[in-house]
Amino acid sequence: MAPKTTAEVSMDALYRIFTVPEAPDSTLGKIEQHLSENLEGFLASHIVTQERPLHEIEHDFAYSDIPEQPEFVSDHTDTLLKKLVAQSVHTASPRFIGHMTSALPYFLLPLAKLMVGLNQNLVKIETSKAFTPMERQVLGMMHHLVYGEKKGFYDRWMHSADHSLGAFCSGGTIANISALWVARNNLLAPDGDFAGVSAEGLAAGLQHYGYSRLVVLVSERGHYSLSKAADVLGIGRKNIVSVPADDNNRVQINELKAAAEKVTREGGRVMAIVGIAGTTETGHVDPLSEIAEIAEAYQAHFHVDAAWGGATLMSNTHRKLLAGIERADSLTIDAHKQMYVPMGAGMVLFKDPSLVSAIEHHAEYVIRRGSKDLGSHTMEGSRPGMAMLVYSALHVMGRKGYELLIDTGIERAKGFAALIEQQDDFEVITHPELCLLTYRYVPAEIKASLANADAEQIAAITPHLNILTRYIQKTQRENGRSFVSRTKLTPRQYFREGTLVFRTVLANPLTTHEMLAKIIVEQREIAATAPSLRKHILDAAERVGLVSSA
């Protein structure tokens, strides 16, 4: 192999890197052209379908020395194509239906380039003079979508220096942490000689107010980011109290009331109650209005984690599924999920724009008092102008465009569930409420007997079915033609036995019914390549009398 040439090291060379674009016929120039012309085609032709073992990919990125000499852009781009792009996950593929990441509208690519080129820092208005009011407007639009306040409300509060309708952040985790941060600081606010939890710490706050602990109540389907929030905020992960869900994966209201009463009776304080609008595993929505009643009764902050399902509010047909969300004190929405913008566009919204005063921070060199710097009310400091891409998507697609995408995704999920139910060797585990469902493969001779199986029989065959599910999912992923994810649920119909299932997210507008039918066929074909695993299932079923021996 010929030795790799290095680029020139000089101020002139560096100047060209900063100012002169690559030629149209260069590797990078061709990539830009192809991306602009056909994103899906470029990704399909450059991302390999056969999965490479992770340890081999790690070998490509094994050197820890910073390169001493620069290399030519075209050489480096070739390296990226071979080592990075080729082994990336094809999240834009209409057959990639396993996670909450979808295709992007093509117009966002050049706009993203513009955003990167402007390189605005949204922490302070001095580095984001136009981006700051634009971000405030986007937050106002989303606030209006949720809470529907009148025009005068937004005229007064949207651009107020001392208030905020919300904040952009990197994702749902930071949004959830921010909401609970606000809840904690407002609950343990300054009082008399007590300067507030932000000044004196949690222990002093608990002592001053006479609480033994602070607790957050959430369904057992709550996102793991809430445990992170409890850790960061000092209330402790054990104080995220998991409340049982019902057969439809929604929090049980009676259990929620009982948990709130128990915490209070024992001297604790319910700091917040979190409702879920689109659970990560099954896509279901908690009874938000009923949760709001309990939160009001216990004077707890009501937060809704709508990172996934919040965009459903765009649909006049389906927004009723989120009834009660307008009563939330705060909520999380991820625009990089069902609003189809690139990763890194989370939002937290606050019903009352004065709530954020409890987390206000200032510094003399930046976010000064009285300024409109967004950093005074955000957990993150330096941030890119992702609000620009949300702003553009809202304008280019409009509410009605989003409504069509949301409605189509939900109908597609219902259609896929119906297709699965027509099979004699597949079963739906959780039916879709939004555009997410779970299912699994079960040999036909076993499936016919499941409805009448008792707890002992289910316990005997489930571990073997789980092994087969894992094998099918992993093999399908490695084949690279399509992808579904998997998770473990505890279905009531199977006596709460831990059950591995395929998890499917149908938000990509390019996914067709024919593609879904082929995914089922592929999974059945993969199952046929594992006769020993199928035999273990049948043997276990025979041992416990679920099926008769041949």
Topology of this protein?
Elements: H1 11-19, H2 27-37, H3 39-46, H4 54-60, H5 73-85, H6 108-118, H7 131-147, H8 151-157, E1 166-169, H9 172-187, H10 197-200, H11 202-209, E2 214-219, H12 225-232, E3 240-243, H13 253-265, E4 269-276, H14 288-297, E5 301-305, E6 330-334, E7 346-350, H15 387-421, E8 426-430, E9 436-441, H16 444-450, H17 455-479, E10 485-489, E11 499-505, H18 513-528, H19 531-543
Parallel strand pairs: 2-3, 2-4, 4-5, 5-6
Antiparallel strand pairs: 1-7, 6-7, 8-9, 9-11, 10-11
Helix pairs in contact: 2-3, 6-15, 7-15, 9-12, 15-18, 17-18, 17-19
Pfam family, one: Pyridoxal_deC
Cofactor: pyridoxal 5'-phosphate
InterPro entries: Asp_decarboxylase_pyridox, PyrdxlP-dep_de-COase, PyrdxlP-dep_Trfase, PyrdxlP-dep_Trfase_major, PyrdxlP-dep_Trfase_small
What can you see in these coordinates?
The protein folds into three domains: 21-88; 121-384, Type I PLP-dependent aspartate aminotransferase-like (Major domain) (Aspartate Aminotransferase, domain 2), CATH 3.40.640; 407-544, Alpha-Beta Complex (Aspartate Aminotransferase, domain 1). Strand 8 (426-430) and strand 9 form a beta hairpin. It has 19 helices and eleven strands. It is globular, with a radius of gyration of 26 Å. The protein is of the alpha/beta class. The longest helix is centred in the C-terminal third of the chain and has 35 residues, at 387-421. The strands form two sheets. A seven-stranded mixed beta sheet has the order 1-7-6-5-4-2-3, with helices on both faces. Strands 8-9-11-10 form a four-stranded antiparallel beta sheet. InterPro entries: Asp_decarboxylase_pyridox, PyrdxlP-dep_de-COase, PyrdxlP-dep_Trfase, PyrdxlP-dep_Trfase_major, PyrdxlP-dep_Trfase_small.
